Amino acid sequence: xxxxxxxxxxxxxxxxxxxxxxxxxxxxxxxxxxxxxxxxxxxxxxxxxxxxxxxxxxxxxxxxxxxxxxxxxxxxxxx
Length: 79
Hints:
By secondary structure, the protein is mainly beta. It has no helices and eight strands. A hairpin with a 5-residue loop joins strand 7 and strand 8.
């Protein structure tokens, strides 16, 4: 799977890793938290009206422009 299909979202999918100390590299040991990538298909836009993630669709306006809209309330995103 190519790396372009994954991204890192801050605060989501955080893994805890046990790390050994390495004084030669100046790395202290202990348990560190590391953000891991998730697939693009698992990311959603936040609808400001509901403050939740929402599905997005595409439609053509009367003037011929292609815009995105929230499927829950048909609000246009790209105006």
